[in-house]
What we know:
The complex is a heterotrimer of chains A (416), B (338) and C (288). Chain A contains twelve helices and 15 strands. Chain A has 416 residues and is an alpha/beta fold. Chain A folds into two domains: 37-42 and 50-167 and 307-382, Response regulator (Rossmann fold, 3-Layer(aba) Sandwich); 170-300 and 388-411, Rossmann fold. With 288 residues, chain C is an all-alpha fold.
Amino acid sequence: xxxxxxxxxxxxxxxxxxxxxxxxxxxxxxxxxxxxxxxxxxxxxxxxxxxxxxxxxxxxxxxxxxxxxxxxxxxxxxxxxxxxxxxxxxxxxxxxxxxxxxxxxxxxxxxxxxxxxxxxxxxxxxxxxxxxxxxxxxxxxxxxxxxxxxxxxxxxxxxxxxxxxxxxxxxxxxxxxxxxxxxxxxxxxxxxxxxxxxxxxxxxxxxxxxxxxxxxxxxxxxxxxxxxxxxxxxxxxxxxxxxxxxxxxxxxxxxxxxxxxxxxxxxxxxxxxxxxxxxxxxxxxxxxxxxxxxxxxxxxxxxxxxxxxxxxxxxxxxxxxxxxxxxxxxxxxxxxxxxxxxxxxxxxxxxxxxxxxxxxxxxxxxxxxxxxxxxxxxxxxxxxxxxxxxxxxxxxxxxxxxxxxxxxxxxxxxxx
Amino acid sequence: xxxxxxxxxxxxxxxxxxxxxxxxxxxxxxxxxxxxxxxxxxxxxxxxxxxxxxxxxxxxxxxxxxxxxxxxxxxxxxxxxxxxxxxxxxxxxxxxxxxxxxxxxxxxxxxxxxxxxxxxxxxxxxxxxxxxxxxxxxxxxxxxxxxxxxxxxxxxxxxxxxxxxxxxxxxxxxxxxxxxxxxxxxxxxxxxxxxxxxxxxxxxxxxxxxxxxxxxxxxxxxxxxxxxxxxxxxxxxxxxxxxxxxxxxxxxxxxxxxxxxxxxxxxxxxxxxxxxxxxxxxxxxxxxxxxxxxxxxxxxxxxxxxxxxxxxxxxxxxxxxxxxxxxxxxxxxxxxxx
Amino acid sequence: xxxxxxxxxxxxxxxxxxxxxxxxxxxxxxxxxxxxxxxxxxxxxxxxxxxxxxxxxxxxxxxxxxxxxxxxxxxxxxxxxxxxxxxxxxxxxxxxxxxxxxxxxxxxxxxxxxxxxxxxxxxxxxxxxxxxxxxxxxxxxxxxxxxxxxxxxxxxxxxxxxxxxxxxxxxxxxxxxxxxxxxxxxxxxxxxxxxxxxxxxxxxxxxxxxxxxxxxxxxxxxxxxxxxxxxxxxxxxxxxxxxxxxxxxxxxxxxxxxxxxxxxxxxxxxxxxxxxxxxxxxxxxxxx
Lengths: 416, 338, 288
């Protein structure tokens, strides 16, 4: 069918104008968005009478980093199980969003949708640095407090005044290891870190404190994140003949591959010790790594073996809320747990309302006894101040645990 | 002037081809109605504008791949290299002081086109499998380069806070995605018009001929190699424009703009919608992204299963994609005795 | 100095042999059926998971799982070839790519559903751990085992292809399927058996590789590129070519990272592009 061009143009124009006219008449506030059956519970239409406090939880739940999202969610659920989901008379609602990460543009879009469409009061989660960085401007522009529950690169908190971090930074946990190594007879070290932000942070922080105490760094290796074969790097370590190798690789498969290569090439027999950040002996992965992990000394802010009533309560709540297939709790779930504690604290003090700047003030002065130990937020940098423990992997009641040997208290993030 | 009647599409053969007809670059009513859809979406789904802008940008990217894959017949699994190159160009320009969106977009497209031209000589020779591997290899090389050049590209952490100036000096990129949506839509429309013109030109016809029987072309005096290089270059340039759009509207670039998942996803989208059809890219991109958004909410862990099943189903039952399916239905309807 | 180089070389050869075992099936399939099977890695992955299931649930010792895995994946391959792949055997490369990527997605999602997204780990028998001292060098015991297994397999494969009737039929079918069918060779059956063999080898490789490459549901995608490189650079259908390409890839990757750690993946991908330009049909090609 073919109308003369003029008629077609007329129809098109009328169509466009008609649609525009429809919008002028149609001013429903908060129209129902597309079905969101993935939320828990079903989101009510946006209303002005606040009966719920909404938290948008953004993290990767599928893809190679799915474990991070899961651990964060388990931690959130553990807190809600223990403390209920009501505070100051208002109900807490957690809207879970998957970035399928690392895809920063999806993270940013999800944050925008959560803020504009769902009108959340808090943005939380953030398992990966690029996603946190992408969302920062959204938090600033919408004045929404952004609770970081995992991402560890130092610069994140500088990207928005509304960011508060509850996890840790690599410099924070790596620097103490330099001190410990010097005091414990280790003077020659090779370093091996994953080649990305947190890894470079860890390397720099460790080397700074280590060399300041008189230690000598023989070799510094950076391993690509996607690296199936460690042989070449292990060989270089062997060539350098250090007393110990300082390692940082992100918690997950690289830890296992590294450990295997280390043992297979006989570095342990050669007397080279492993000193690392706790990512290498992450509680969640420890059962998979198995006995090769015995004896490794790490510095970290959380161990499942930490002996405190808060930790016991947390672990119990974790298993109650998530069941046994959730595996072992770890530092990511603890950070999420503490993040939720902070949100609850804010709402208690604000009486169930939301004022971003007041909320930030409360968050900046937040202190608590977390399952990991005492924590506080540094009001200047909005990073968490916590105890960093030196632990060794031992068998406790037949299971592998990071047993705490000593600790450094009130460690701030030294990068700033 | 009437068009030649559309003969019944060969529904019996396993591969429904676009119904052959003489090229006419006319603007039809159907085109107007189809382009009303995003306008309606803007109005009807005001809280989905950010998603909408990203669907549009992905559609432009898919269109660029369709030119290379659907029309020129080059199977490319590394097209994200040009998308990413455009994205980083636009972002780096802004980061280093020049945040004007439109000129930034032009630069992004130009640089990607140059890269496309340079790599086209590697790609246009060789048969399907080698082509596939070379495009894959080029894509991976770009990704490696961007990862290594972390000082420039921000590496794995990405380039945040890309400072964009206002579009036309008036419209700020706002948090609700209004400017992003309209800006992307206008650019997409422009790209569409350009590609439409190309496809319906003698050059476009020769591309289709090459795809269907490259060996016969020299007999007609048509230079196969040069045409393919041209098609690949234009496709790369348009991909760069799409990448630039993404960087500008999200004010962020990460390494994921270059990775294999993106190349694979856009190939899937083009096939889903129907290769070698002007609207196939849009249909495929829209369908895929909306499905992904929906499925990622329903079962974040298992959306890969559904995409996998969909792919298998499309190849087995709907070889020509969604639009191919429409063609088949139309042909079937046309053949029914009245 | 030399000892270090030899050590690293040895590791590269071991790594390459592993890639060869997994990829050889894909090479034969591509050469034989001109079929691009991007889901090949899924057979390797499932082989690994079957080995783990046998070891953890049924307490089967590691060495005994290997033949079991081979048989299991060979059967799976035969079934898959008869049912799924048959439908798409005569389609465009693009369709094959999409179909097999779809299968790979389904495989990944199923593996995630059954075993979870985390890395799997196995405890190797003590005899295979640690190091062996050979002529002044410390060589990993497991890697020695790997190379030994692969050498045996290559010898068997070669004998199979060069000396048996089936091998002759296979070579004929690769050279020219139509003529072979015309001579009464049951080309279909040859296809199925080859596919089964290739899948079985992939499964074996997956099980052998758990200790070296790791195992998680994203395995088919993580290593897809490596397998493709081996097949395309080595020449489709050529077993010798795959072996050469795999070992070269392994050696270049490991040795490259030792001497120039910052080079990363450039070496491999750049090498692949260059090789493909110089040898567009692969290093050794079967089809003339």
